[in-house]
TrEMBL record:
This is 3-oxoacyl-[acyl-carrier-protein] reductase FabG. The gene is fabG_4. NCBIfam families: PRK09135.1. It holds the Pfam family adh_short_C2. One of its GO terms (molecular function) is 3-oxoacyl-[acyl-carrier-protein] reductase (NADPH) activity. Gene3D superfamilies: NAD(P)-binding Rossmann-like Domain. Keywords: Oxidoreductase. Transmembrane segments: none annotated.
């Protein structure tokens, strides 16, 4: 990946940061997108640039604002001269009890998990086509097997999974489009799952443990660099939880 450029959304913290670090270690330049985590984003690019000067930069944007999406792409190309890969990782996540779903929840969950990946990929497409690049969308095992209490998030991720397959058609044969569907990797910071629920989720994985953020990063790495004959696919990285959900 040396000399190539990857834009990773929601990359300042947690899983996105692990993806940025993993892909930077391949020799790629990384554009770190963030929304609120400015200190974390600055710290990450300082870390990456210390390893390899001028190899990382960051951009702030709320992905609900469609007008900034072409700007994210053009800034990345201006900074690094090309765009080879896009990782749609940014996501909002919260419960939406059916009967009280409102427009704001729709805008937030569908906006970050489905709408922004579509329009960002559309903006990036000319560069990805020129580079014969790749897209990885981070979905969720609950895209295919919904989680009770989270109908809107699950539907948005299901849309992102469908979009992955549809864009593999639209962008083929030059650009590969795939998804990684995490299972239990990092618990939400908002504490949506209590300790009993967490224990039940982990017990339901075939590997009887939660994963770690590097498990997702390594799957993204495989899809971006090694999976040259793979497109329109999803890899469940979930300790086997989806095998018997
Ligand atoms: N963690 C898990 O176990 C797990 C399980 C299943 C699926 N996933 C999926 O894996 C990916 C990474 O998981 P994660 O837990 O690391 O995600 P996360 O911490 O919940 O969110 C990642 C980032 O998304 C950004 N974001 C949210 N809404 C945004 C918006 N409207 N505009 C711009 N950025 C926005 C936030 O950036 P700022 O902090 O800068 O505001 C946040 O740091 C997500 O797609 C998630 O759905 C994770």
């Amino acid at each position: 990946m040396s000399g190539k450029t990857i834009l990773v959304t929601g990359a300042a913290r947690r899983v996105g940061r692990a993806i940025a670090r993993e892909m930077h270690a391949t020799g790629a330049n990384i554009m770190v997108h963030y929304r609120q985590a400015s200190a974390a984003a600055e710290a990450l690019i300082a870390e990456l640039n210390a390893l390899r000067p001028f190899s990382a930069a960051c951009l702030q944007a709320d992905l609900q604002d469609l007008e900034v999406l072409p700007w994210l792409v053009s800034c990345t190309v201006d900074r690094f001269g090309r765009l080879d890969a896009l990782v749609n990782n940014a996501s909002s996540f919260f419960p939406t009890p059916f009967g009280s779903i409102d427009q704001a929840a729709w805008d937030d969950l569908v906006g970050s998990n489905l709408k922004a990946p579509l329009f960002l990929t559309q903006a990036a497409a000319p560069h990805l086509l020129a580079a014969r690049g790749a897209v990885v969308n981070i979905t969720d095992i609950h895209a295919e097997r919904p989680l009770a209490g989270y109908p809107l998030y699950c539907a948005a991720k299901a849309g992102l999974l469908g979009l992955t397959r549809a864009l593999a058609i639209e962008l083929g044969p030059r650009v590969r489009v795939n998804a990684v569907a995490p299972g239990p990797i990092l618990w939400p910071e908002e504490g949506f799952f209590d300790s009993t629920t967490r224990a039940a989720i982990v017990a339901h994985t075939l590997l009887e443990r939660a994963g770690c953020r590097q498990d997702i990063a390594r799957a993204v790495h495989y899809l971006l660099e090694d999976a040259t004959y793979v497109t329109g696919q999803v890899i469940n990285v979930d300790g086997g939880r989806s095998a018997h959900l």
